[in-house]
Hints:
By secondary structure, this protein is an alpha/beta fold.
Amino acid sequence: xxxxxxxxxxxxxxxxxxxxxxxxxxxxxxxxxxxxxxxxxxxxxxxxxxxxxxxxxxxxxxxxxxxxxxxxxxxxxxxxxxxxxxxxxxxxxxxxxxxxxxxxxxxxxxxxxxxxxxxxxxxxxxxxxxxxxxxxxxxxxxxxxxxxxxxxxxxxxxxxxxxxxxxxxxxxxxxxxxxxxxxxxxxxxxxxxxxxxxxxxxxxxxxxxxxxxxxxxxxxxxxxxxxxxxxxxxxxxxxxxxxxxxxxxxxxxxxxxxxxxxxxxxxxxxxxxxxxxxxxxxxxxxxxxxxxxxxxxxxxxxxxxxxxxxxxxxx
Length: 315
């Protein structure tokens, strides 16, 4: 009987499906301390491991699971799995590609609307007894050029939800060349930087995309756009973003992800001073890495992951 270790919270449909279709024995520890996972792997002969974001998968960790055949991540990104593991022909890495695309798209749309129409500031001013209408005049999406960097599942979903607003949506993707649809026009990266009033990033974290939102990017901007990152925190260079805000190279930032999460968990962290500076800007909006974690996507992720595991098993 195949034994599968699950070390993070997943929707029950995944557990039920693995038992039903694979006849697997599931060991489910959603609240396990990450430090206890190596010991848990050593206690039994697991062939499958299901993770989310709790741990980093390294060769050292897998030394505790000598017969492990596959790792499934309940999410779209696999950047918490070392590249040498992803490329290992003896280990299959499975993800839930695109399962949370709609959730991220709607979250980003919400951030854009809240920022453009100054909703957070308006709420706080009314609560404080003020009624300054002119100070909270909004800016419409209609007629603006919105650039999407990375037009995969999520970028395409964002382009579609934006389609009803009358904006001109352009996109750049280095690796996906056939993404142009009625919702998004394909352009080069320099063109996107020069023409966009709003830019949203939807790229995986890799050596190539690390600090992509950095000083070189900010230097190419022409229209002082609103910049949104709902991909991975380390896609953004924290200090370069702060400098761009100070120099007025951008109109603001909407960030669902940060290079360190949570950002102020350890006051001795070398980025603490930078985060405190970032938090001083009124034209920066945050959410705690929840863009892809809606009530609906919680189930969609487990359902897609089950589907992909069964495909790997030839079922």
